[in-house]
Amino acid sequence: MYYFSVMRRRSSMFSSLAEKKSWFTPDDLVPERRARFGSALSEGVSFTFVDSPSQPRMSDVPENSLLSCIHSVTARSAASVVLPFTLMAVSAEGRVLELIHSNETLRREAEQAGLRRGLMLDLLHAGMNAVSLAMETGGPTVVRGVEHSHPVFRQWNCICAPLVFEDRRYGFLDLSFSVAREVEFAVPFVIKLAEDISAQVQACDPCMRRSRIQELFQEFGLTPREREVAELWMNKKGALHISSQLGISEGTVRNTVKRIYEKMKVSDRAEMIGRLL
């Protein structure tokens, strides 16, 4: 699983973790790393808003695709959460893209506190919070009440999980709820929610879907030429079209398709598509 591989690679950055704990807290930072967050607090932090990124985004995922998938997955999962919550979708750079509140009271409280789209939650702009800690660690995080740098967040316990595709983080999901509630039960839920959103983004976004299909072609052992033919074939292009586009004969196309079927252990185009989508 990506989260745990990240933890192993970055183990030198943190103090000893509980053997079975699958998330980071501020206490897991080694002193020199913790000092970075402490300096942000001592200097004082105030909310900063960015309506649109000033630099190219770190992610290749269009924000509208990401938000559509978040709303879709959240609508299916929210019924299983009985406590009042606020869910924040955050870009790879730490900018809040969307806030989803479980009730109207939370929405009004968030507005009064100045929480809205464009809020920057990275270390530089917001100090210690679940998102900035996840940006630092690369894995799921938990930040409780008074551990937050900004006073507004000290009434909340917050859980954040990265949204990941092919070992790249393209955003974060943050679930916040009353500081009076325990966090342990909610951590697996947030991690699973982030995984479900990532899976749906991969399925819906054309660029990510193509990347995943190419990855599967490699797993099936297709050669570069076979991958070219397979991609066109699964998109329902005929042998004549493929031969013209790739500059090979129709016979070569048909022989290549036969080898592709053998490697993928399928017997026709429909079965091939079913194995890839």
UniProtKB/TrEMBL annotation:
CDD domains: LuxR_C_like. GO terms for molecular function: DNA binding. Keywords: DNA-binding, Transcription, Transcription regulation. SMART domains: HTH_LUXR. GO terms for biological process: negative regulation of DNA-templated transcription. Residues 215-277 form the HTH luxR-type domain. PANTHER family: DNA-BINDING TRANSCRIPTIONAL ACTIVATOR DEVR_DOSR. This is HTH luxR-type domain-containing protein. The lineage of its organism: Bacteria, Bacillati, Bacillota, Bacilli, Bacillales.
